[in-house]
């Protein structure tokens, strides 16, 4: 086996080999990191996030002036718009031309919005631009988290309009904290120990703020429950990558002097667009990493239900049903997907496939919120009616691929007498299965 074949085998099977009793903690942790990074990269490519990042970059550029116009308008209502300008300049200190352009355009937008017919149209366009961007971002995050059900219109408007008014307040508070931190640092310079510590803490402040922003984005944006612990690591990685991009942008200016000479004052726009595109790449990749933090077990061995035969799928469904019935008959809490996986040792994607089939034929029912990762399953019918023969018959009749592995389906070519014999034999088989009490 050559190196390429060994690498392919390792990425397909080796990294999913969970012999935890034989491996040390460091090796298990390292393999988990490799699994998550590999799956995040794979899903980032397979789900077309390069295209999504381009769409979101375009939507962001369209909405950025209305967004800051709204933020400045709310800030002026409190008499604190200068703090917002200071925060924007410090955030985009690597792109001062872009920061000044945004402030100038937002101020011009507000001035025109206060005169004539533009009052109503400008306000509607501003709200539409902001809500449209939020909707597009939420849609991409729902794709990442495989959430099919979107927020209702009422909930979407209520959540995001409240957030739109809360963001300026947060920015003002952050600006105030930054000013206080810098002032305190200046006063502590005379101290031998506290002075350097204060300088380090002030330098870490942008990293902490970025991390909190990404945590909020990863947890709040998808229309599903996201664990805080699953979002922390990807948020830290996203903050580090964003700061590295900003550092690279600043130091890359030395190599772009000819570029600035060609484009002049317009040079800031394509550079800003490039920065925006890379930022969305980072955001979406780390969102995929957050998803893998929470649902890595769902991709164990990368086995798909299509990779196994119909007979084996039926056996898995029977085994899953057996554990559900046993748990219900004992009067204990219903089983979750992860609990069934731990009891059976079957990869979780195959367990989910079996549960979907059993739910479709109305043999099991969902207990609790279907969006909850701790969804539980219990029998949907009386235990007296749940015999092996009945379950097998329902699964066979429901399967669209029951003739998939056959070269020819001869059932339609049999004469009446032969068809009756086949039907009688099947009924006897089902009856014998029904006589088995220990499912």
TrEMBL record:
<feature type="transmembrane region" description="Helical">
    <location>
        <begin position="200"/>
        <end position="221"/>
    </location>
</feature>
<dbReference type="GO" id="GO:0005886">
    <property type="term" value="C:plasma membrane"/>
</dbReference>
<keyword id="KW-0812">Transmembrane</keyword>
<dbReference type="Pfam" id="PF03631">
    <property type="entry name" value="Virul_fac_BrkB"/>
</dbReference>
<feature type="transmembrane region" description="Helical">
    <location>
        <begin position="228"/>
        <end position="249"/>
    </location>
</feature>
<feature type="transmembrane region" description="Helical">
    <location>
        <begin position="52"/>
        <end position="74"/>
    </location>
</feature>
<dbReference type="InterPro" id="IPR017039">
    <property type="entry name" value="Virul_fac_BrkB"/>
</dbReference>
<feature type="transmembrane region" description="Helical">
    <location>
        <begin position="117"/>
        <end position="135"/>
    </location>
</feature>
<keyword id="KW-1003">Cell membrane</keyword>
<keyword id="KW-1133">Transmembrane helix</keyword>
<keyword id="KW-0472">Membrane</keyword>
<feature type="transmembrane region" description="Helical">
    <location>
        <begin position="156"/>
        <end position="180"/>
    </location>
</feature>
<feature type="transmembrane region" description="Helical">
    <location>
        <begin position="261"/>
        <end position="287"/>
    </location>
</feature>
<protein>
    <submittedName>
        <fullName>YihY family protein</fullName>
    </submittedName>
</protein>
């Amino acid at each position: 086996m050559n190196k390429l074949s060994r690498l392919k085998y390792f990425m397909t099977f080796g990294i999913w080999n969970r012999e935890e009793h034989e491996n040390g903690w460091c090796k298990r942790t390292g393999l988990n990191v490799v699994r998550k990074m590999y799956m995040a990269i794979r899903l980032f490519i397979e789900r077309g996030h390069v295209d999504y990042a381009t769409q979101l970059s375009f939507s962001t550029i369209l909405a950025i002036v209305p967004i800051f116009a709204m933020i400045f308008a709310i800030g002026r209502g409190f008499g604190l718009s200068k703090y917002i300008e200071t925060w924007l300049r410090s955030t985009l200190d690597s792109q001062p031309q872009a920061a000044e352009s945004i402030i100038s355009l937002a101020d011009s937008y507000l001035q025109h919005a206060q005169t004539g017919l533009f009052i109503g149209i400008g306000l509607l366009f501003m709200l539409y631009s902001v809500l449209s961007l939020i909707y597009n971002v939420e849609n991409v995050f729902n794709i990442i988290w495989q959430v099919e059900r979107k927020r209702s219109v009422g909930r979407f408007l209520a959540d995001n309009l409240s957030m739109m008014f809360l963001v300026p307040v947060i920015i003002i508070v952050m600006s105030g904290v930054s000013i206080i931190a810098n002032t305190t640092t200046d006063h502590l310079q005379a101290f031998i120990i506290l002075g350097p510590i204060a300088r380090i803490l002030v330098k870490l402040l942008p990293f902490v703020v970025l991390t909190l922003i990404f945590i909020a984005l990863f947890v709040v944006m998808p229309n599903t429950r996201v664990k805080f612990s699953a979002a922390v690591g990807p948020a830290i990685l996203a903050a580090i990558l964003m700061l590295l991009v900003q550092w690279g942008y600043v130091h890359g200016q030395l190599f772009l002097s000819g570029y600035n000479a060609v484009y002049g004052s317009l040079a800031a726009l394509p550079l800003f667009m490039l920065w925006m595109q890379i930022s969305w790449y980072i955001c979406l990749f780390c969102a995929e990493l957050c998803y893998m933090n929470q649902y890595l077990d769902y991709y164990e061995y990368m086995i798909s239900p299509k990779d196994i035969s119909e007979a084996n799928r039926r056996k898995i469904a029977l085994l899953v049903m057996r554990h559900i019935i046993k748990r219900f008959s004992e009067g204990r809490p219903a089983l979750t997907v992860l609990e069934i996986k731990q009891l059976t040792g079957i990869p979780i994607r195959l367990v989910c496939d079996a549960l979907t089939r059993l739910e479709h034929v109305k043999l099991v029912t969902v207990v609790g919120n279907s969006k909850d990762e701790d969804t539980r399953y219990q029998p949907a019918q009386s235990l007296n009616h749940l015999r092996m023969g009945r379950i097998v018959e329902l699964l066979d009749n429901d399967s669209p691929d029951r003739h998939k592995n056959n070269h020819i389906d001869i059932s339609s070519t049999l004469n009446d007498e032969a068809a009756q014999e086949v039907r009688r034999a099947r009924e006897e088989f089902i009856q014998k299965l029904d006589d088995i009490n220990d499912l």
